[in-house]
Write a structure and sequence with these properties.
Elements: H1 6-27, H2 32-43, H3 54-74, H4 78-83, H5 85-109, H6 114-125, H7 129-138, H8 145-171, H9 186-190, H10 196-231, H11 236-258, H12 262-273, H13 279-302, H14 309-312, H15 314-338, H16 343-352, H17 358-369, H18 375-408, H19 422-425, E1 434-437, H20 441-452, E2 457-461, H21 464-472, E3 477-479, H22 485-488, E4 498-501, H23 506-519, E5 524-529, H24 532-541, E6 545-548, H25 549-560
Parallel strand pairs: 1-2, 1-4, 2-3, 4-5, 5-6
Length: about 550
């Protein structure tokens, strides 16, 4: 007996295709998002074969949006933003303005009205946090100056988009669309006596303000208390359920009680929860479900794309792609340079922003639903997103090669306003030495052991204050991501005796092991790992000894009871 199961079919086939195409994208060194979008195209109504239920896909995508926005709020860092506010705030606002105007210019040429152009331009102005973080993590630049600027820039863009998502529904009619059914009643607006537009905005601001006040006054205390109470029960299952209930419950309740979007409710739920010491555990425990529904969100966006747009309107697709990759990049590059930063920093920031993602899709789908933009707008945004995501790694590759050539030529890549000291760029003169990577709790003990054995050594550490303290103590130390070519060239691995990686990240340590063995096959490598899989991985790459903390602790405890 056959059963009509559109929900199961949509989820199972959508996830299976997304998995296959995501793996292929990863193999091609592309973000998996590109594969998820293509999977959506394949199960969409514009391609032959299986067609997923679009109505169900949209609802599943809403859950994806809630969990994505919850994650954005959970990782929102006011501290990170304030540390780079001087460049991130004006830079992001300036770049959003330029990209929006470029998008409006394209829509004007296509005969769209100003409201459609505004929404379309805003959709092109914001980059994908997922794609950006992946690119920075691959190059170990998240904690560098350029990485902090890029992340702070994205935080500002995300905040602008959150405000935009709040304002567009009440302004839908003014922008040439239709007001949502659950919008504030015209009678209530008219009673204010300030005109329909200002009345709608005032009432919307009042409802959003009330929601924000409730979250900051009551939610700020209630949500962390509830999470701590559940954590003390000792049930991980209940803890995970509590986090999901908070994310989905606040999003749904905010929409029904205050008339704000699911996205805003989820963002504030995550932001309030981020203040709890348990926020990291909450993020970790909900990550699998968040990732699964985020994949379904990208698949549902891909379903909106009619591939015929590449043939039917190739010039519009090309123009959209150029606005994303060249227009935004050029604006970001010029802004960063205008603030006195180096060419290398400006190029990294411009490449980081030369793509679009989650917020772009959320915004353009909202615009289509409110009839502000035509369906063709979503085709152009999705097509531009796929093309920009495909090209983005090539832009980073070009920057990496350019930076490598500058280092080989002896150039100093540093902010123009504050050049790096020349001595920091000079390679070590040590030979037969030990290279210690990481100076945390483990690395600091290892350095003292090397010192006690009179083994010449140098330290590579990302934390600026640690490097400064080591140099003050007379220790040769280098600051920066240890996998960067510019840092590796200073370590004289070719004549080193030992490489000791005290960093917990097996992926980053693997890059170091490969580089060291390539430069000096005779070097002895000692590495740290946190799992049996990491031990095997590092040994296959050439590490001579890989120690796992739990095993060494067990051996020590066993020896103590002999």
């Amino acid at each position: 007996m056959e059963h009509d199961t559109p929900l199961i079919a949509t989820i199972s086939i959508g996830l299976a295709l997304a998995f296959v195409l995501g793996v292929l994208a990863q193999r091609c060194r592309l973000p998996p998002i590109a594969g998820y979008l293509v999977a959506g195209i394949m199960v969409g109504p514009f391609t032959p074969g299986f067609v997923a239920d679009q109505k169900l896909a949209v609802e599943l995508a809403e859950i994806g949006v809630i969990l994505l926005m919850f994650g954005v709020g959970l990782h929102f860092s006011l501290k990170d933003l304030l540390s780079v506010k001087a460049i991130a705030v004006p830079g992001a606002l300036g770049q959003i303005t330029v990209a929006t105007l470029l998008g409006m210019g394209l829509t004007w040429a296509m005969g769209w009205d100003m409201g459609a152009g505004l929404v379309f331009g805003l959709a092109l102005s914001v980059a994908s946090t997922v794609v950006l973080l992946r690119a920075l993590q691959e190059r170990r630049q998240v904690d560098t100056e350029k990485g902090r600027i890029a992340v702070g820039w994205l935080i500002v863009e995300d905040l602008v988009m959150v405000v935009t998502l709040v304002l567009i529904p009440p302004l839908a009619a003014l922008l040439g669309g239709k007001a949502p059914a659950e919008m504030i009643s015209p009678g209530l607006v008219a009673s204010l006596g300030v005109g329909p537009v200002w009345g709608t905005l005032l009432l919307t601001a009042a409802k959003v303000g009330l929601f924000v006040a409730m979250m900051l006054v009551f939610g700020r205390k209630l949500i962390p208390w509830l999470l701590h109470y559940v954590a003390h029960t000792g049930s991980r299952e209940l803890f995970r359920l509590a986090v999901l209930a908070i994310a989905l419950g606040v999003a749904f309740g905010s929409a029904k009680l205050f008339g704000v979007s699911f996205a805003l409710g989820a963002f504030f739920a995550g932001m309030v929860l981020a203040e709890s010491p348990l926020s990291h555990q909450a993020a970790k425990d909900t990550l699998p479900l968040r990732d699964a529904f985020a994949v379904l969100f990208f698949v549902s966006v891909g379903m909106l794309l009619d591939p015929a747009v590449f043939v039917r309107n190739p010039f519009a697709v090309l123009a959209t792609f150029l606005i994303i990759t060249l227009g935004k990049s050029a604006a970001a590059y010029l802004i960063v340079r205008a603030f006195g930063y180096s060419n290398g920093v400006a190029m990294t920031i411009s490449a980081s922003l030369a793509q679009i993602g989650e917020f772009s899709f959320i915004l353009i789908v909202l615009g289509v639903d409110l009839a502000i933009v035509p369906q063709a707008a979503s085709d152009l945004v999705v097509a531009g997103s796929i093309l920009s995501i495909l090209v983005n790694p090539l832009m980073f590759l070009a920057i990496d090669r350019f930076a490598g050539r500058r280092v080989e030529a002896g150039a100093i890549i540093a902010p123009v306003a504050a050049p790096a000291p020349v001595e920091a760029e000079e390679p070590t003169r040590l030979t037969g030495h030990a290279v210690l990577v990481g100076h945390g709790r483990v690395g600091s003990h290892l350095r003292r052991a090397l010192q006690d054995r009179n083994i010449a050594h140098l330290v590579v550490e990302e934390d600026v204050s640690n490097v400064a303290a080591l140099k003050a103590a007379g220790v040769e130390a280098y600051q920066g991501p240890c996998g960067e070519p510019a840092v590796l060239q200073r370590l004289n691995l070719a004549q080193a005796r030992f490489l000791i990686t005290a960093i917990p990240d097996a992926y980053e340590a693997g890059h170091l092991v490969e580089a060291a063995k390539a430069a000096n096959p005779a070097i002895r490598i000692v590495a740290r790992a946190h799992s049996a899989e990491a031990v095997d991985y590092l040994r296959k790459l050439g590490a001579d000894a890989v120690l796992m903390g739990e095993e060494e602790l067990a051996r020590g405890m066993a020896a103590a009871i002999d």
